[in-house]
C-alpha cells in the first residue's frame, strides 16, 4: 500500500527536497553549530580528539610584557610541562599582540609539543580596576584572529579574558561571560573555550560556582571549561577540596588556571593541597608564573633562567604532585608524526664532593637525532623515583640530603620533542655524618579533625645564625596516631616514632627562616600533641 506522502505531486516533492537541502546547507554553515574537532569536553572532562583525557600540567608565561623571551616555551617544556598559558593583550590596556605574533607563539608551542592556552589579560579586575577592558572587547580581538586560530583546535585553548571581574558587584560576571561565549560560537569558533572566575579569578563569593551550569548550558557546543585562580583565599584544605569537588560532582569541567604558593601580605596559599587534590581528581593546573613578576616571590625561574629555579619553581616542577612527576604530553604530538624517538641513556653517574648534605654527580652525555635539551637527576628508592634536580649539562650538585644516609641516584635525558630516555645505571652515595648542629623551633598544631582522623601542620624554624642545608625531623606521637600523607618532606613511621626527611624544595632553611609541613593522619578517640622534636639529632624548642 502506498503512503499518502508518495502521492504528493512530483513538482511539490522536488520543491520540498530543494527546501530541505537549502535548510540543511544553512544549518551546516551556521557557525554556532560548529562541532568540536580537537580538544573538547566529554562528560565533564577535557579530552583530545583521540578521546584520551588531557590533564594540563604547566605554567603561565607573561609573553605580552616580555615578547623577547621566546626561549621560555622550550624551557618550560624541558622541565616537564605539557601546557603553557600565554599572556596576550587585545590593545585596550597594553600593547596589542598582532596576528603575526600570535601565530608565532602558536608555532613555538607546537614545536615544543605544548598545548597553548591563549588569554587576553586586559580584562583583569573589570568593574573595580578602571583600566580594565570588557569581555566583549576581548571577544572581538579573538574574532580578529580567526584566520590564525582556525585549524588549531587540537593545540589551542582560548581563554577569553583573564580574571574578568573584580570584587565590585561580581554577580555582573555571568551575563557578559555568556554573551562572549555565544559571540565566539556565532563567529564559528569550535575551540575549547576557557572562562575565568570573578573576584579577581578567586570566586570567593561563589558567583561562578553558583552560575557555572547556566554558563555551560549557554555554549551550544558544550566545549567550555572553567578556570579558578587559587591564591591566598585558598589557604585551607577544606576550601580547596570543597570548591573543586563541587564542579567534579556536577560534571562541570574545571582546572586551576593560576595558583601561587609563597605567602604574601594577603595570606599563605595551601599549594600542597591544591596540587594533591588536582592530581587526585585528575584536574589541570597552571602555576603563576614563569618569570618577570613585579613581585619576584612568584617567579618560578630567576631572570628567565631555567637552571636557576626559585624555591617556588622547585616546588612546582620537582615537588610532590609536581609537573615532573605528573605531566603527560598530549598524544596529538606523537600521533601527528613528530619525533617520537627518545635519546639514548646517559652514562652511569659518578659521585664527588660528598658532604653531609650534598653531592656532585657527573655522567657522560646521551645522544639524540635532534639534540638532547636537558637531564633529570632522580633519587631512587625501590620502585619510587623523586626528581632531585634538572640541568642542561652533564653534571649537577644535589643538595638537601640527610647526613649519614645512603642515597641512590640515576639520570634521564630529554630531547626537544619531550621524549625521555631510558634511565641510566644507578650510583649509591653515603653522605658524611653530623650535619651541622642547628638551633631550631617547632610549632605543631591540628588544623582540622574528623572521626578517626585529622590534618596537622608543623612549622619548622631555624633559630640559628646560619642556614640549615638538609635536615631530618623526628618526633614520637603520644597516642595511636599514624601519618597517612605528608607534604614538604618524606615521612616514615615505625610504631609511634616518625621521621621526616626534607624534600628538595624545603631542604634549605635560611637563618631566621622557616618551612611548613602538612600532613594527614589517623587517630583514636584522643589526639594529644607530641611534646618533643629533634632536628638532625638536636632538640628543638616547641611552641
UniProtKB/TrEMBL annotation:
SMART domains: CBD_II (SM00637), FN3 (SM00060). Pfam families: CBM_2 (PF00553), Cellulase (PF00150), fn3 (PF00041). The keyword Iron does not apply. Keywords: Carbohydrate metabolism, Cellulose degradation, Glycosidase, Hydrolase, Polysaccharide degradation, Signal. SUPFAM superfamilies: (Trans)glycosidases, Carbohydrate-binding domain, Fibronectin type III. Residues 332-352 are annotated as: Disordered. Residues 1-34 form the signal peptide. Gene3D superfamilies: 2.60.40.290, Glycosidases, Immunoglobulins. Residues 345-434 form the Fibronectin type-III domain. InterPro entries: CBD2, CBM2/CBM3_carb-bd_dom_sf, CBM2_carb-bd_dom_sf, FN3_dom, FN3_sf, GH, Glyco_hydro_5, Ig-like_fold. Its EC number is 3.2.1.4. Belongs to the glycosyl hydrolase 5 (cellulase A) family. This is Endoglucanase.
Amino acid at each position: 500500500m502506498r503512503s499518502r506522502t508518495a502521492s504528493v505531486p512530483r513538482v511539490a516533492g522536488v520543491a520540498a527536497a530543494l527546501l530541505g537541502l537549502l535548510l540543511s546547507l544553512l544549518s551546516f554553515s551556521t557557525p554556532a553549530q560548529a562541532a568540536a574537532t580537537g580538544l573538547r569536553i566529554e562528560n565533564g572532562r577535557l579530552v583530545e580528539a583521540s578521546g584520551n583525557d588531557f590533564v594540563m600540567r604547566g605554567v603561565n608565561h607573561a609573553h605580552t610584557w616580555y615578547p623577547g623571551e621566546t626561549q621560555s616555551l622550550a624551557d618550560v617544556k624541558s622541565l616537564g610541562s605539557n601546557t603553557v598559558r600565554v599572556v596576550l593583550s587585545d590593545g585596550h590596556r597594553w600593547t596589542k599582540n598582532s596576528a603575526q605574533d600570535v601565530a608565532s607563539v602558536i608555532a613555538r608551542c607546537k614545536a615544543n609539543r605544548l598545548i597553548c592556552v591563549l588569554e587576553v589579560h586586559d580584562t583583569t579586575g573589570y568593574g573595580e580596576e578602571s583600566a580594565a577592558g570588557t569581555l566583549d572587547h576581548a571577544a572581538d580581538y579573538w574574532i580578529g584572529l580567526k584566520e590564525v586560530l582556525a585549524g588549531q583546535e587540537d593545540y589551542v585553548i582560548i581563554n577569553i579574558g583573564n580574571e574578568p571581574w573584580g570584587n565590585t558587584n561580581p554577580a555582573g560576571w555571568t551575563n557578559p561571560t555568556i554573551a562572549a561565549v555565544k559571540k565566539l560560537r556565532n563567529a564559528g569558533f569550535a575551540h575549547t573555550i576557557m572562562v575565568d572566575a570573578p573576584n579577581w579569578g578567586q570566586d570567593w563569593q561563589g558567583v561562578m560556582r553558583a552560575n557555572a551550569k547556566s554558563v555551560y548550558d549557554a555554549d551550544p557546543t558544550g566545549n567550555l571549561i572553567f578556570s579558578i585562580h587559587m591564591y591566598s583565599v585558598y589557604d585551607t584544605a577544606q576550601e580547596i577540596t570543597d570548591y573543586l569537588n563541587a564542579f567534579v560532582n556536577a560534571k562541570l569541567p574545571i582546572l586551576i588556571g593560576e595558583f601561587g604558593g609563597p605567602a604574601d601580605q594577603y595570606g599563605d596559599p595551601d599549594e600542597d593541597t591544591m596540587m594533591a587534590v588536582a592530581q587526585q581528581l585528575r584536574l589541570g593546573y597552571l602555576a603563576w608564573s614563569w618569570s618577570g613578576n613585579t613581585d619576584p616571590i612568584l617567579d618560578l625561574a630567576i631572570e628567565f633562567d631555567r637552571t636557576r629555579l626559585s624555591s617556588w619553581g622547585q616546588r612546582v616542577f620537582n615537588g610532590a604532585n609536581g609537573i615532573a612527576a605528573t605531566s603527560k604530553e598530549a598524544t596529538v604530538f606523537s600521533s601527528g608524526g613528530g619525533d617520537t624517538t627518545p635519546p639514548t641513556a646517559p652514562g652511569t653517574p659518578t659521585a664527588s664532593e660528598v658532604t653531609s648534605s650534598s653531592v656532585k654527580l657527573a655522567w657522560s652525555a646521551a645522544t639524540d637525532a635532534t639534540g638532547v635539551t636537558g637531564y633529570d637527576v632522580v633519587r631512587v628508592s625501590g620502585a619510587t623515583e623523586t626528581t632531585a634536580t634538572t640541568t642542561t649539562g652533564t653534571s649537577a650538585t644535589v643538595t638537601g640530603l640527610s647526613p649519614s644516609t645512603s642515597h641512590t641516584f640515576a639520570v634521564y635525558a630529554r630531547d626537544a620533542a619531550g621524549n625521555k630516555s631510558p634511565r641510566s645505571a644507578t650510583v649509591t652515595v653515603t653522605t658524611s655524618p653530623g650535619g651541622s648542629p642547628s638551633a631550631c623551633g617547632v610549632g605543631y598544631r591540628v588544623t582540622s579533625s574528623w572521626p578517626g582522623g585529622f590534618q596537622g601542620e608543623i612549622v619548622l624554624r631555624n633559630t640559628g645564625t646560619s642556614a640549615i642545608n638538609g635536615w631530618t625531623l623526628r618526633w614520637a606521637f603520644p597516642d595511636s596516631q599514624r601519618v597517612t600523607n605528608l607534604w614538604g618532606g618524606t615521612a616514615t613511621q615505625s610504631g609511634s616514632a616518625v621521621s621526616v626527611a626534607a624534600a628538595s624544595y624545603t631542604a634549605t632553611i635560611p637563618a631566621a627562616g622557616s618551612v611548613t609541613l602538612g600532613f594527614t593522619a589517623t587517630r583514636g578517640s584522643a589526639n594529644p600533641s607530641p611534646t618533643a622534636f629533634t632536628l638532625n639529632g638536636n632538640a628543638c624548642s616547641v611552641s
